[in-house]
Amino acid sequence: MGTGESPVQRASAEFVTEFARWRLERGLSKKQLAAEMGFDPSYLSHVEAHRHRPTEDFARRAEAVLQAGGAIWRRFREYDELRASSRATRQAATAPAAQIPSQRDSDAWLPPSAGLVVEREVARLSYVDGRYRCTVRRSLYNAGNEPVTRYLIRVAVDRFPNESERSNQYHREHPLTWDELHLIASCGGERMEWRPKTDRDTFKEAWLLFENERGRFPLYPGQRAMIQYTYHVGADKWGPWFQRAVRLPTRRIRIELDLPMAMRPVVWGVETTLSAESVPLRTPIEQEIEGDRAVFGWQCENPPLHARYRLEWRFREPAESAVPAQRTVVAAGNGRGHYVPGRTEPAPAPPSVRMAAAGIIQRGADVLQSPGRWFDLPRESALAEETVERLGLALVHVARLHRFRKGIGLAAPQLGLSLAAAVVRPVGAREPIVLLNPRVVAASAETDEQFEGCLSFFDVRGLVARPLRLTVENSLISGERIRVTYEQAVARLVAHEIDHLNGQLYTDRMPEDAPLVPVTQYDQADQPWVY
């Protein structure tokens, strides 16, 4: 085409280029493709030579045979709309203005007979304190004929991405687990339950279900929904890469990296498609500074199906590790200690110090002595979800510091947040208990006494009487109030966290003269409560 070509001519040329590219990628000759499409080979040759104008029927058949993920169909729609607009402009003197298209129809980019499609995806990976947090938001549209009841997601790790044998061996010894992922998903403010599909050392697949304990909320044909899911992986298992694969027809995709400025990150990107292997991204990666964080972003429109986009990075400054206090190692002999010159090892920090280092607010802080503010739901659903996510991540981190054989819980005030939210993980439970704006509405007269610990003063244990059965009224993200009854150990864990949300500690429930037992003298630390 010459430099004086019209927008319509350029759009026609782009359609032909896209069509020819997919024909070559599928390894089909013009004659073979024409036979599968039901056209005369000469007609197909004329279209590729720009001698015949493409028709809607031609574009539909080409899309169906070549299975281009909507790429061919999008190019045709762009061409067809420009052609219609150009024709309408020429007739503007007699045609009403409303007949002139002002913008592309929101569904025009979709391929024929499309099913579930992604109108926009934003995937963000953040590195904080030796862990990566991945949050993916997808705007979905059901362009098919059947309701969608579940959505498949994938999580893959590769510690040494360019050394497959070394990486496989490493992950056999350090497999990825569901517990550490702490997967949380929601759809339009509704929590989504999830079900594992594939469970391997380096690869996990899970179905996000359009349902929860309140009922089902399928995505019906013609409806749109925003889903979000978050998971976490330690830096010991996640290599320096973040990849997104296009598995559904997608209109827009954006990838973000949130990294600490102090580590002086360097970021680059590559893409892989059916026609190219690991070529540099075709557009530059943007960078913004947000406080002490560097946020790198890259995006594109209408990515081809099966394309993979990967951001990679390196840190020019390693993460600073705390230098622990040292103690001398002595060898016992004849009942006397002997100094071993030149050998030192870290002195174990007290439990409270380790919890404080993990971000747990310690006893004496004002935030632990006042009730947490209730959420205004559903208006503050985003704040509630973010708070629950922070609690879940903190629990995963704390669980690495101590074995919790009785279960574990954490309330928002213990993270310095004066909000009425807590998360409880009973022993053996796959899903945590999420408490939002909880209120005890009934408690059994029958009680028992058990020793409790608290992350906000973890050096001691105290004997506390609690009801054996507890009924709690709790809020869902939607604002609906529900009632749940808990018993025995779970009731104790829930009651402990609700006390935190009311500005109380377990010591407030003990007699004034009751002693606290140092954890070094407590011999039931590794034992569950007995009932």
UniProtKB/TrEMBL annotation:
Superkingdom of origin organism: Bacteria
Cofactor requirement: Fe(2+)
Co-factor binding comment: Binds 1 Fe(2+) ion.
Residues of the HTH cro/C1-type domain: 19-67
Family annotation (PROSITE patterns): HTH_CROC1
Catalytic reaction(s) noted: N-terminal N-formyl-L-methionyl-[peptide] + H2O = N-terminal L-methionyl-[peptide] + formate
Gene3D superfamilies: lambda repressor-like DNA-binding domains (1.10.260.40), Peptide deformylase (3.90.45.10)
UniProt keyword DNA repair present: no
Any GO BP: translation
Signal peptide: none
Identification of the protein by name: Peptide deformylase
Organism expressing this protein natively: Virgisporangium ochraceum
Upper lineage: Bacteria, Bacillati, Actinomycetota, Actinomycetes, Micromonosporales
